[in-house]
UniProtKB/TrEMBL annotation:
Boundaries of every Glycosyl hydrolase family 30 beta sandwich domain copy: 411-470
Assigned protein family: Belongs to the glycosyl hydrolase 30 family.
Residue runs in coiled coils: none
UniProt cross-references to InterPro entries, sorted A to Z: GH, GH30_C, Glyco_hydro_30, Glyco_hydro_30_TIM-barrel, Glyco_hydro_b
Domain of life: Bacteria
Glycosyl hydrolase family 30 TIM-barrel domain location: 77-407
Range of residues in the leader sequence: 1-21
Pfam families recorded: Glyco_hydro_30, Glyco_hydro_30C
Gene3D superfamilies associated with the record: Glycosidases, Golgi alpha-mannosidase II
PROSITE patterns associated with the record: PROKAR_LIPOPROTEIN (PS51257)
Keyword annotations: Glycosidase, Hydrolase, Signal
Name of the protein: Glucosylceramidase
Length: 472
């Protein structure tokens, strides 16, 4: 995986960061909540004690102004969250019941100090952040099971399903996406969990594998809202993994998976690609095929390559189809002062300004040594949480997602906002009518700016690299 582009450390560290000292407003009609994260960790998604107030003018004639215009609307939001890997579930399940209950309420609750995580991505079978490789139909070498008579969700019943059911008890409306890292090895050209391609003769069986997964999870009380066909289909070097070219994915969808879902009356969304933004041609080529397109809800992206703006190329080519941002890692050797500004600027702001309905960070939880993982899996994937028994450390991705998830609830709609130089931002209208604005100061020094909405203005100051969420 690629390292993030980083801001110069010298620009982020050693500066005196403001926490939003504002000049008084006159004619205040409504107060504004201000939640702040500073790169030096002096504030970590911290609500500022004094609310901001609307006035009638910007602080000075030269103050940059972010204009929020809710007359211009864009895509609805499905949610912000993480990937609940098997390893994450294993670590959560190992906690004491009381400690786990408190933590899950903090993550998935929608009131008080909870951060309101509203979307999770699951692996269909093992990801590389499971303790071991498995599928739901593993057989001795040389055997096949085209009728899937031995299909079983038993591997998920040990840790994943118990934890998932606790999460859904807290937030029943949480949306879930399933993504496979590999089919069962007996379906593959190399008969291995790593690499290889899906044998054409097993396309029908693999379509039924998805059907059985969705039906089996439903029987457990778990609704899968969407699936992607293959995690990172152009990266067959992971364990598990699969190489699936765009023409293969199109063929699988139009001849097998789409008809299988239709026959089984499954309304789970089918999402293509699920890989880097350097290949927007991959999903576009599938969507250009009308036989495949009829079954496809949209396309999913990661950002280990390519620009985030590539998502808009797919939107422009097929504006009737949705876009999702489904994975970005935080490396264990990277640092908070670089990660938080980059992820917020590029993903929370950048992905949603380029039509994404979700923004998901990679791994929800890892232990202090970035375990568990498969042999050959990621050894440096830092979780949003580091779990050491009942000890919880909140890491970079926890705060990155919190800045959006707590207030831009599912059903929020992105609304227009201008982008003054070095002040990337994104605005939403939440289902309850609140306006939510996420701003990142990309300057090398503190920056005061104004926000204008419906003729009223408030002013705020963010330190270099800092992130603010404003709610009114």
């Amino acid at each position: 995986m690629l390292r993030f582009p980083s801001l110069a450390t010298a620009l982020l560290l050693g500066l005196s960061l403001t926490t939003g000292c504002q000049r008084p407003s006159t004619g205040t009609a409504k107060s504004v909540e201000f939640w702040l994260t500073n790169p030096d960790k002096s504030a970590l998604f911290q609500r500022q004690a004094a609310p901001l107030g609307f006035g009638s003018e910007a602080a000075t004639p030269t103050t940059p102004v972010i204009e929020v215009d809710e007359q211009q609307t864009f895509q609805p939001i499905d949610g912000f969250g993480y990937c609940l890997t098997g390893g994450s579930a294993q670590l959560l399940h190992a906690m004491s019941p009381a400690a786990r209950k408190t933590l899950l309420q903090e993550l998935f609750g929608t009131a008080g100090t909870s951060i309101g995580v509203s979307y999770l991505r699951l692996s269909i079978g093992a990801s590389d952040l499971d303790a071991q490789v498995f599928s739901y139909d593993d057989l001795p070498a040389g055997q096949t099971d085209p009728t899937l008579s031995k299909f079983s969700l038993a591997p998920d019943r040990e840790h994943l399903l118990p934890v998932l059911k606790e999460i859904l008890a807290i937030n029943p409306s949480l949306k879930l996406m399933g993504s496979p890292w590999s089919p069962p090895p007996w379906m593959k050209t190399n008969e291995s969990s790593k690499g290889g391609s899906l044998k054409p003769e097993f396309y029908p069986a693999y379509a039924q594998y998805f059907v059985k997964y969705i039906q089996g999870m439903k029987a457990e009380g778990v609704r899968i809202d969407a699936i992607t066909i293959q995690n990172e289909p152009l990266h067959p070097g992971n364990n598990p993994s699969l190489l699936m070219l765009e023409e293969q994915q199109a063929e699988f969808i139009k001849k097998h998976l789409g008809p299988a879902f239709k026959a089984a009356k499954i309304d789970t969304k089918i999402i293509v690609y699920d890989h880097n933004a350097d290949r927007p041609d991959y999903p576009i080529s599938i969507l250009n095929d009308p036989e495949a397109k009829q079954y496809v809800d949209g396309s999913a992206f990661h950002l280990y390559g390519g620009p985030i703006e590539a998502l808009s190329k797919v939107h422009d080519a097929h504006p009737d189809k949705n876009l999702y941002f489904t994975e970005q890692w935080v490396g264990s050797k990277s640092n908070f002062a670089e990660n938080v500004p980059w992820h917020v600027r590029t993903l929370i702001i950048g992905a949603t300004r380029n039509w994404a309905r979700t923004v998901l960070e990679w791994n929800l939880a890892a232990d202090p040594q970035q375990n568990p993982h498969t042999p050959g899996g990621c050894t440096e994937c830092r979780g949003a949480l580091t779990l050491d028994g009942d000890k919880v450390t909140r890491e970079d991705a926890y705060y990155i997602i919190a800045h959006a998830s707590k207030f831009a609830r599912p059903g929020s709609v992105r609304i227009a906002s201008t982008t003054p130089e070095k002040l990337p931002n994104v605005a939403f209208r939440a289902p309850g009518g609140q306006r939510v604005l996420v701003v990142q100061n990309d300057n090398a020094s503190p920056q005061t700016f104004a926000v204008r909405h419906q003729g009223r203005v408030f002013s705020s100051t963010l330190g270099a690299g800092a992130v603010g969420t404003y709610v009114w």
